[in-house]
Amino acid sequence: MSSTAIPCQKFNTADELKTLSRSVLSGDARRMLGVLDSAMRKILLVFALENTNITYLDNDGLDGEAEKAIKKYLKLSQQYSSGRIPVTEKIHMDIASYTPAEQQREESYVDAAEKNGETPNVGSEYNGNEKPDMTKMDEENESSAGSEAELKEHLLLAVRRLLRVIKNSPRFANLTENYLTVKPRSSCSLPDLKLPLSVSNFPEACSQAYLSDMLSRPQSHLMRYFLKLRSNIFSNMLTTPQDSKRKKKYLKEICNRLNEQQIKVDCLTSDLEILTAKNNEQTLEEEYLQIMEERRLEEERKQREEEQRKALEQAVCTIQAYWRSYKTRKMARSKRGGRGRK
Questions:
Q1: pTM (2 decimals)?
Q2: Predicted confidence (pLDDT) per residue in 23-74, tens digit
Q3: Contacts of 189 (CB under 8 A, 6+ apart)
Q4: Beta bridge partners of residue 180, listed in sequence order
Q5: How far apart are CA 37 and CA 43, in angstroms?
Q6: Angle formed by the axes of helices 27-50 and 64-83, nearest 10°
Q7: What is the b/e burial string over 20-58, where b = at least 16 CB atoms within 10 angstroms of the residue's CB?
Q8: Reduced to 3 DSSP states, what percent helix, strand and coil does the chain have, rounded to the nearest 5?
């Protein structure tokens, strides 16, 4: 399967589904989407049959009417496709089957006709000096245009008959699933391709359509255009005239809520600034008190040390005074005792 997912509804992201979570309830809307889905299913059936081999159909055991309708459609489709090849391409394809001498003669004629802006008629009897019969060429062009229109009409009738035959055939019921799958399946969808009729606010419920690589490039482009058309119609079906009024109302309410919240934020910001200033002031005051306390303790320590030093000096002085007094009294007694013995 192709890795490219195509949204089945026109939304960019899953978040956009939340405001439009609803389903298509109108019968007319369902019929319109049903017609589009049925057309896409028929196109996919035709694409699938074009990619089916005829020998496979012979061995598949189809009923006679279905096999006949399919083979007739494939034959007419091949004829119509080959008839729509560009003129110059058909001419060069025809020239490739000629002999070398005929190829050289035909190519020179084709180049001269294309240079003059004329439509060359390959295989006509002429020589280098003769000019082609324009009346005969016009008649051939008219006959080819008439045959192409007739072939187109036969092909249209063959397609209608083919779709009518295989419409109720169970053999072709699941044939389109090989070319288009929808994941995840919607809970509310049409039976043809299981494309959604509702959206949900769950991101995993956003359906995606996947195209198979078996489709050719033009076929894939055609289906992409159909899916985009379906997504646009689906989105328009979900959108009502009241949505614009609701949108304006919701936007106004959101703006009012935003303004209210902004005012609250401004008030809280100013309160925060005041608290921050108070906190800074209190912090500075605490730091100042702590510094002053440290200074007081330092001064008290110095004062105690000074008092201890003074007390120590006073004690030393007292001891020295007692010692000198003791020495003086001792000397005085020794002198008095010596005079008495004499």
A1: 0.45
A2: 666 677 778 888 888 888 888 887 877 776 555 555 555 666 666 777 777 7
A3: 182, 195, 196, 197
A4: 211
A5: 10
A6: 80
A7: eeebbeeeebbebbeebbbebbbbbbbbbbeeeeeeebe
A8: 75, 5, 25
